[in-house]
Each structure stands twice: as structure tokens, then as C-alpha cells.
């Protein structure tokens, strides 16, 4: 009973109901994910609050996000940085960006968020070229085959002390298969190997179960 996906969802629902009340803007942002190119791909409410708390605990005021979709996690991050903070969110599809912008406006945080449309790697390179001020916190939650590229971009856009979170690193357990023909799995495996080989980075990864199934995330602290 307690190992079933139904039980995982029930536990998540209990945690959310008890500790993570969503206001109308968050509910609307989550539900509007149905109008994006990847319905129901946004983080769970308790995961969104974790991202916000990580930002607050690290004193982050500048956040970079790879993957906007409907802007659900973006709202959490924008609220976490406060009215003097800034979030830059990179989104491939204009369709998704339009949904996100409406949700950010509804949540009262549109004035502190820039949604840049186009391939995230290209957008990140433009930020580097333009001399963007370093970011304190990075959330990588876009196409998984490009994770290694997004990590490299993140390192060019952060400084010692910055924190990077990479979502969806378990892939229902497939991450342990070195011979997987799934480009998403290989993207995760490569980025984890890159993190492990970089002396500037200190990291751990955690498995999760819940309303989003069996997955997990990696938390990276840049030390140098």
C-alpha cells in the first residue's frame, strides 16, 4: 500500500495541504500548464516552495531559470527574491512564454521577471556576451539532453557561493544505466559526471517520490 504511486500522491497532497497553501495565482499558474507544450511538467507545490526556501536561505536576489513553461516555478522564485530581486527565465516556445507572462502578471511579480524566448543555450550565451551580473541561484529544468550545456552556461553566469539546482535527474531509475539509448538519461549522466569532475563544485543528489512520480534533483554549490 505505502509503496504505490497513489500513496505517494496522497502523502504529497497531505504535505501541501498542511504546509504549502497555494494562493489563487499559484493555482492558476499550475493549472494553466495544460496550455503549454508540456502539460503537467511543472514542479509540485512542495518542490516549488523548496526552491523558494533555498533562494531565501542563501540570500539569493538574482535567479536564472532554464525552462519557464507556464511560469509556476518562476512565480515561486520571483516571490522568493523579493521586490528588489530579479529572475531571468529562458523559454524555447513563445506559446509557453505568453502563458507564463500572464501568470506572472496575475501573481504580481511580472516587473521582476524577464522571460527570454529562444533556445536556452543561445539566450544564455547572449547573457554572457552582454556581461550579465552574476546570478546567485540557478534552476535547470529544461530539455535534459542539453543539461551539460546549461551547466557550462551556469558556470559562466555565476560566482563562488552560487547555488545550482538541476531537476529530473532520476528518470524513473534509468540514470543508473550507462548504456541507455535515451538522450535524456545520457544528458543527466553527463552533467553529473561533469559536476563530479569540476573542483569548483560541491554537490549531492536526492531521489524523490510523490505527485511527480519517482524522480529527484541535484543541488550544486559553487565553491570556486
* Largest sheet, spatial ordering of strands: 3-2-1-4-5-7-6
In DSSP terms (H or I, runs of 4 or more residues), the helix count works out at 8
Q: How many distinct beta strands?
A: 7
* Percentage of residues assigned to helices: 40-55%
The gyration radius over C-alpha positions equals 17 Å
Name the CATH class: Alpha Beta
Q: CATH topology, anyone?
A: Rossmann fold
Written account of the structure:
The relative contact order is 0.13. By secondary structure, the protein is an alpha/beta fold. The N and C termini lie far apart (46 Å). The protein is built from eight helices and seven strands; from the N terminus they run αααβαβαβαβαβαββ. The chain has a seven-stranded mixed sheet with strand order 3-2-1-4-5-7-6, with helices on both faces. It has one domain (5-222): Rossmann fold (3-Layer(aba) Sandwich). The mean pLDDT is 97.
Write the layout of secondary structure elements.
Elements: H1 5-19, H2 24-31, H3 45-58, E1 62-66, H4 72-81, E2 86-91, H5 94-106, E3 113-117, H6 120-129, E4 135-140, H7 147-156, E5 158-167, H8 183-197, E6 201-210, E7 213-222
Parallel strand pairs: 1-2, 1-4, 2-3, 4-5
Antiparallel strand pairs: 5-7, 6-7
Helix pairs in contact: 2-5, 3-4, 6-7, 7-8
Amino acid at each position: 500500500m505505502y509503496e504505490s504511486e497513489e500513496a505517494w500522491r496522497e502523502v504529497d497532497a497531505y504535505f501541501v495541504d498542511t504546509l504549502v497553501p497555494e494562493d489563487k495565482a499559484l493555482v492558476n499558474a499550475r493549472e494553466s500548464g495544460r496550455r503549454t507544450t508540456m502539460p503537467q511538467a511543472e514542479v509540485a507545490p512542495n518542490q516549488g516552495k523548496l526552491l523558494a526556501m533555498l533562494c531565501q536561505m542563501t540570500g539569493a536576489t538574482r535567479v536564472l531559470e532554464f525552462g519557464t513553461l507556464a511560469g509556476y516555478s518562476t512565480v515561486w522564485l520571483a516571490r522568493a527574491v523579493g521586490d528588489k530581486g530579479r529572475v531571468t527565465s529562458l523559454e524555447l516556445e513563445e506559446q509557453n512564454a505568453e502563458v507564463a507572462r500572464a501568470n506572472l502578471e496575475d501573481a504580481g511579480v511580472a516587473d521582476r521577471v524577464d522571460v527570454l524566448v529562444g533556445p536556452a543555450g543561445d539566450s544564455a550565451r547572449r547573457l554572457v556576451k552582454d556581461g550579465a551580473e552574476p546570478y546567485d541561484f540557478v534552476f535547470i529544468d529544461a530539455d535534459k539532453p542539453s543539461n551539460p550545456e546549461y551547466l557550462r552556461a551556469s558556470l559562466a553566469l555565476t560566482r563562488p557561493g552560487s547555488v545550482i539546482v538541476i531537476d529530473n535527474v532520476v528518470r524513473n531509475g534509468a540514470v543508473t544505466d550507462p548504456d541507455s539509448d535515451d538522450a535524456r538519461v545520457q544528458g543527466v549522466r553527463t552533467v553529473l559526471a561533469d559536476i563530479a569532475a569540476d573542483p569548483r563544485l560541491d554537490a549531492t543528489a536526492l531521489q524523490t517520490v510523490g505527485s511527480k512520480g519517482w524522480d529527484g534533483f541535484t543541488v550544486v554549490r559553487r565553491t570556486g
